[in-house]
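Q: what sequence does this backbone want?
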């Protein structure tokens, strides 16, 4: 009978506490840049490295800013086409509560896209600035229903629902929507749309409710168009939004800060301003992974990821005997080289990466490329 200790050593860095980084300016007073970037969702970002979802991250950053009396104002860096209704509403709610508890000003800066849920969140701000080339609007709610009945019939597959109530199978993709189904779904959409309009009415006090409803037909607006109809306050860049935040807070000088975690390269106000969180179809309730589970190429992706993690753990155990740190990311290089035979996933000689996140994104792209070249 053997006894001993088993050590669970994680090769990849675990999410650490938020770290404050000054990216511009000086002084004890601070202006916080808070990101609303990518698909707005409560789903954790995909990747080898665990990261919090957008809702949890925003809450965490607001909580830290609230406890720091030197943070005098917040600038929202918005670059999002929208996302789920609930995630957008929670973030809006948390920003409004932050303002109520602290009395601090919040400025929204739409950098590239601030549409749908992105615009929803902007309504929590005291002022909204849109960059000259940005796009906003898309005010409304959408629900996507995919009907796979015809496709399933072609391959000889049928589906039958055993249900507890008449509408329990409402919206399943194996049958078309009935008029009654559409009526039920439309009532849900109408209620959520009414909530969206209510949020905009509060955020754009100068616009009459009937005018807002006329603008909220789902169309998108350029920055100039949005300024003309009153959906944004002014056209300007992120640095102008920061200056406005200083002015609203009664400051002449301030340190502009970002909260980040170890491994993120941040050195200016645009660092990490464009990032991805969640999958791009989650706004319509579509999970591509589930839709493709019957595709052999998708199994290649998941199988390759598993083999990659297995290789990483093996190399990591070897490395533990050689050195106490993994900060040069040699382990990832060795892993890529070990996987070179797997349909071109790894280039000859490998690459060097500044952060694990950068290496992770590269590996995901290479896996996807290899998957596309795979034939059933």
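A:
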């Amino acid at each position: 009978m053997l006894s001993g200790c088993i050590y669970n050593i994680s090769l990849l860095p675990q999410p650490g506490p938020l770290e404050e980084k000054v990216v511009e300016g000086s002084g004890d007073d601070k202006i916080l840049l808070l990101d609303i970037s990518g698909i707005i969702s409560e789903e954790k970002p995909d990747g080898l490295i665990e990261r919090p979802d957008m809702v949890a991250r925003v809450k965490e950053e607001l909580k830290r800013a609230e406890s720091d009396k030197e943070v005098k104002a917040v600038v929202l860096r918005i670059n999002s086409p929208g996302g789920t209704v609930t995630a957008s509403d929670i973030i809006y709610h948390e920003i409004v509560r932050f303002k109520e508890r602290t009395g601090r000003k919040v400025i929204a800066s739409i950098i590239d896209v601030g549409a749908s849920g992105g615009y929803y969140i902007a309504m929590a701000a005291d002022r909204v600035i849109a960059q000259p080339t940005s796009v906003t609007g898309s005010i409304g709610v959408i629900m996507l229903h995919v009907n796979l009945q015809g496709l399933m019939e072609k391959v000889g597959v049928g589906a039958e629902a055993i249900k507890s109530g008449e509408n329990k199978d409402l919206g399943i993709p194996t049958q078309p929507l009935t008029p009654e189904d559409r009526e039920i779904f439309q009532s849900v959409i109408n209620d959520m749309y009414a909530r969206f309009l209510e949020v905009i009415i509060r955020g754009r006090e100068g616009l009459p409710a009937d005018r807002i409803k006329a603008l909220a037909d789902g169309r998108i607006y350029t920055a100039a168009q949005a300024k003309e109809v009153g959906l944004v306050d002014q056209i300007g860049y992120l640095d102008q939004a920061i200056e406005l935040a200083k002015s609203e807070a009664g400051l002449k000088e301030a340190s502009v800060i970002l909260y980040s975690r170890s491994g993120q390269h941040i050195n200016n106000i645009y660092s990490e301003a464009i990032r991805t969180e969640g999958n791009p179809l989650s706004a319509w309730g579509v999970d591509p992974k589930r839709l493709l589970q019957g595709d052999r190429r998708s199994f290649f992706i998941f199988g390759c990821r598993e083999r990659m993690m297995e290789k990483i753990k093996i190399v990591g155990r070897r490395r533990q005997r050689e050195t106490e740190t993994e900060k040069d990311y040699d382990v990832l290089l060795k892993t890529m080289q070990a996987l070179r035979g797997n349909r071109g996933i790894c280039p000859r000689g490998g690459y060097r990466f500044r952060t694990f996140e950068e290496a992770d994104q590269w590996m995901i792209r290479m896996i996807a490329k290899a998957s596309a070249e795979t034939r059933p």
